[in-house]
Write a structure and sequence with these properties.
Elements lengths: L9 H16 L8 H30 L3 E5 L9 H7 L3 H10 L4 H5 L11 H15 L4 E6 L7 E5 L2 E5 L12 E2 L5 E5 L2 E6 L5 E6 L2 E13 L6 E11 L10 H17 L14 H24 L7 H4 E6 L5 H13 L4 H11 E4 L10 E3 H7 L1 H22 L7 H8 L2 E2 L2 E3 H7 L4 E3 L2 H11 L1 H6 L4 E3 L6 H7 L2 H11 L20 H26 L8 E6 L8 H17 L8 E6 L7 H18 L8 E5 L5 H10 L2 E4 L11 H7 L3 E4 L5 H8 L5 E2 L4 H10 L4 H7 L1 H11 L11 H8 L12 H20 L1 H13 L6 H13 L10
Bound molecules: pyridoxal-5'-phosphate (PLP).
EC number: 2.4.1.1
Cofactor: pyridoxal 5'-phosphate
Catalytic activity: [(1->4)-alpha-D-glucosyl](n) + phosphate = [(1->4)-alpha-D-glucosyl](n-1) + alpha-D-glucose 1-phosphate
Amino acid sequence: MKKKPLSFDKDLFKRSVLYNVKTLYRKTMEEATPQEIYQAAAYAIKDAIVDHWMTTQKAAAEQDPKIVYYMSMEFLMGRAFGNNLINLQAYKPVKEALDELGLDVNLVEDQEPDPALGNGGLGRLAACFLDSLATLGYMAYGCGIRYKYGMFRQQIKDGYQVEVPDTWLENGNPFELRRSELAKEVKFGGYVNMFTDEYGRTIFRQEGYQVVRAVPYDLPVIGYGNGVVDTLRIWDAEPIQCFQLDSFDKGDYQKAVEQENLASQLCEVLYPNDNHIAGKELRLKQQYFFISASVQTAVQRYLRNHDDIRKLYEKTVFQLNDTHPTVAVAELMRILMDDYYLSWDDAWDVTTKTCCYTNHTIMSEALEKWPVDLFQRLLPRIYQIVDEINRRFVDQIMRTYSGSAGIDVQAKIRSMAILYDNQVKMAHLAIVGGHSVNGVAKLHTEILKQRELKDFYEMMPEKFNNKTNGITQRRFLMHANPLLADWVTEKIGDDWITDLSQMDKLKDFVNDKKAQAEFMDIKLKNKQRLAEYILEHNGVKVDPKSIFDVQVKRLHEYKRQLLNILTVMYKYHDIKSHPNKDFYPKTYIFGAKAAAGYLTAKLTIKLINSVAEVINNDPDIKGKIKVVFIEDYRVSNAELIFAAADVSEQISTASKEASGTGNMKMMLNGAVTIGTMDGANVEIVNEVGEENAFIFGLSSQEVMEYEKNGNYNPMDIYNSDPNVKKALDMLVDGTFSKDKELFRPLYNCLLNKVGGNRADQYFILKDFESYLEAQKKISDAYADKKRWAKMALMNTACCGKFSSDRTIQEYVDEVWHLDKLNVEAK
Ligand SMILES: *Cc1c(COP(=O)(O)O)cnc(C)c1O
């Protein structure tokens, strides 16, 4: 049976906008600024949301479903306004209402700052998961940090990245609710006092600590068309009652100031590192801060209507998004033992049944470790508990393996202990302290089981499982690409909105000439839309009829933007030396932020911009190649870019990209992948068929063999392959920079050992020729209009598996075991 759409009162909305403009700003519509109109409209939408939000909370109170707490340092939500309208099924009436008020919905949407409380894929995954949880009708809380400054805004000045603070809260956030009644205290430092109480129990009490007040802000997460509204709860830090006059001696004064400083610093800024650990003390404080507050509220919520804390896990599950939230294991142990007097064994039973861990990377620089002395100083009680978890676990390793023939027990301890070499290994704590460990794509999970976490897998195979990532089609098709969304609905109905496997039905149209033409016409319109954006932001005119070849993602050596731009440099040379050679016009589109301290990444951005400058202004090229670097890549412009992509560049060194999700967003929008057999690319090719993707390069097996044997020598390739040599020499011959030495560090990384790194550690030279070949095949395929239309359409038709709805349903069925909420949608 077809569900009735949610009701939305358009006239009420209109009146509400006018009223809000008046009461918030003492203005008429004519006088209000676009920002003020956005705020007024957002508050009007919030009114509608709050009703559903209350209904959801009431239903949860009555039905007592199990709740998942998705714990994550990052939630890369993107703009809320348009997405909320879509999920409320109110986009069209609101668009009409704004039209009638003389306003353009796109311009109103453009007033909203992008909440960028995340770096890249990991944070965006968390956002997609919340959308799917609400849409599938599960009770969920996202738990995170309300950074005052999210991911920095990127400006490009003279080709270089400049980081500008992201002041997303400057005008307030109309969708949030401050919940000061739920504030919690979080304690840092001091020492642990141990004594026996009147009942003979051993009591551990933290004393001499600093304390901050954690105040939650709730943001609504709206399910699609089902009246369910979940919550993203992000915590801000405030000083606890500033100065208590009665204890105003010298020591307390000092401490009051320190506490105030700590509170004001805690949630200031998101660390802008992706797949790399900064190892800063403040980062550990941030982790414990939001985890302690979140775990306290979860326990408190459970006890609102249950009395046996030993059964917490029946109604509560914590999913730890990477190791960043892993102190949750020890924090839950602390609360269960110190506040509720559970024995170690009982507390351990509850904790391991409540916690689950998602691994996101095998890259060694991303493995989170903390120096023991720092950890112990900052979190003295938590450290005691981790120490005891470790002691018992090492015992267990010894019991399991001593006496087993051919097994080196000390080696097992070395590879698995939580405390080793004066470090706290967070991944080991997460694995031992929970009942589920998952990778984020099949290949990644296999690599975890066979290599990185082999010893853990052998000891506790039942914990390991795969959950291939996904993305939400509500944002990345409905909102990002309304033309294509409407076309799909016209062809197969609208069930795909909540069941992406329906896209399969588009396969009936892949050979249909009319459908092909319509599909490619929509792509062209989206390319025109992006071309306008590029003209406005870059001042570069690009041809919407050229191939839009897109690589947008964080800048990282393993993602190999350098490989991409080196082949662009090579082709520039090739066209210049063969002016009459056929070359299908191509627009290379890049977008990427580099971590502020990552020099190689920043120099790669400069290189891309320098290459763009030279090529775009060289009349010899006759516009056959254009290169564009889109400034400040973020969710809002990503939506425009994905919709316009012909070619999706997914060219990481095999084995390094755990999953990737940008690859899925582009597939959904009908882009064809050029990529390595890495991460979820493997599964994408499996769905769409090898003939509808362009795969090249070393396999993960081959990469790992070279790494093990250390027998890769890029200099041999440089000396024997003239194409490679030409591309590399152009880095240092002045073609793209007056200062010939500017790009020397990139050249050196490719040919020599630098620092502790092997020469060309990401195998760029090794994969260069096969990448060029794949690119040639793409140009040939694109020149054949019908062939390309079919391939592109096949990609959209085969993307069903990559909905985050599917991922979440797998977590629910295999790990979380949640109950569906029954909400009367109105
Ligand atoms: C999807 C997405 C990412 C992740 O992209 P990958 O190509 O998987 O690294 C990063 N940033 C934004 C804004 C995204 O939307």
